[in-house]
Amino acid sequence: MKQTILIVEDEQRLANLHRDYLQQAGFATECLEDGLLVTARVRESLPALILLDLMLPGKDGLDICKEIRKFSAVPIIMVTARVEEIDRLLGLEFGADDYICKPFSPREVVARVKAVLRRSATLQDDSTFLHLDEERYLATLQGQVLDLSAVEFQLLSILAAKPGRILNRDQLMDRIYNDRRIVCDRTIDSHIKKLRRKISAVTPDIEVIHSVYGVGYKYEAP
Amino acid sequence: MKQTILIVEDEQRLANLHRDYLQQAGFATECLEDGLLVTARVRESLPALILLDLMLPGKDGLDICKEIRKFSAVPIIMVTARVEEIDRLLGLEFGADDYICKPFSPREVVARVKAVLRRSATLQDDSTFLHLDEERYLATLQGQVLDLSAVEFQLLSILAAKPGRILNRDQLMDRIYNDRRIVCDRTIDSHIKKLRRKISAVTPDIEVIHSVYGVGYKYEAP
DNA sequence: ACTTGACTTTTACGGCTTTTTACCATGCTA
DNA sequence: TAGCATGGTAAAAAGCCGTAAAAGTCAAGT
């Protein structure tokens, strides 16, 4: 079963070059010439990696990247025309996994693709299990996005920050409501329940939020 | 209290990149540009993890690693420029905890750092006969986990805090129920009994909770 | 301003676990 | 051996959790 690389590149000659080399290297390929349908295609064909040109007709590469990150953690390699771009991009947290600068040799592209795939393979079953982007309130579990409400996200953050450590309901409430609001502690249970439901929609067989009878809750990865 | 990551990297741009991402991820950072002062720094600032470039001016990364291992078990992640290096390194027993190959995405580095830290945290000692982790309500006896209820855990903690010292039932109740609840003192006996049963499931031949006729109970390791 | 819809909090209850109690058997000390 | 302390057991009581549904809150859009 071949892995599919999605090539998003408006310059036809370049796209073909990528395609040929990647196929030669044993990958399946798909091509798009503009940014309009990228997200739709990603959802459909679930590529193993996306090679994304930064300058595209129709839509900016950065926007596409952000959009994809809303629902998927698929590896993305950005292709840019200018070296100076890269430094700028590196500073930004917008979620690409690597950057290639034109002009480049097709061999280099293949090498990078392999490198990124290898990395993401080794990381998959490890720390990438749960990723919490505090700035964006974006939680991903095994590469899939968890659509959490603000309170749910916070709750998960607090628990996941100290895996294994048990927090009681008062501690959790104190951290979530720092305005000293008084809420019934069963409220926590309620949010926990919703969190668990959303999490189990992604990983039905793995429990990550455990209750400790008479004490509280804890987060613990498999 | 943040954990400190010590970055040892001669390429300034790369070091800054690491630093920014790790700080973003909630770590404190320190940087060194060559290998000469690494061991001294490790002794001083006791970092939680070291990110160590293999190729350094002044001293070889491997040597540094070995040197550190003589006095510390701090987690070390080696950074190397070439994939082939890794295979070679993996064969050698020199004590790094993980390897990262250039080029890499800063996100990956953060992920690896977290993964290694998590692993080393869970590997923490099972050398002591009885270990009580108050934070996670986790009691281990000779490396085996005792599945205790909240009260049982407290009871064992109180007794084990003063080995050999005899505590009567009132003292024990006072410490367990600081809300001045009045309970029958036979309740203690009941919990003691359950504790003993769970403990003897792990170490059938060793009695650690002793009753002192007419006085109370004490904990005493073999 | 009103409606609407999404999110949060409260409340109630069944089922389950732990804690407590009661009671009898056994063991210790004088 | 008498008298009290402790151990074992089981059943009652208390407390806790998961769940669902009702009630409240808030902000966006009309």
Structural overview:
2 copies of one chain form a homodimer. With 222 residues, chain A is α/β, with parallel strands linked by helices. The first copy, chain A, has 2 domains: 4-124, Response regulator (Rossmann fold), CATH 3.40.50.2300; 129-219, Arc Repressor Mutant, subunit A. In chain A, 43% of the residues lie in helices and 19% in strands. In chain A, β6 and β7 form a beta hairpin. In chain A, α1 (12-24) packs across α5 (106-124) and α6 (150-161) crosses α8. The longest helix of chain A is centred in the middle third of the chain and has 19 residues, at 106-124. The radius of gyration of chain A is 21 Å and the shape is elongated. The A-B interface holds A 90-91, 93, 95-98, 112, 115-116, 119, 123, 126-128, 162-166, 212-215, 218, 221 and B 17, 20, 24, 83, 101, 103-108, 111-112, 114-115, 118, 122, 135-138, 149-151. Chain A binds a DNA duplex (30 and 30 nucleotides) through α6 and α8.
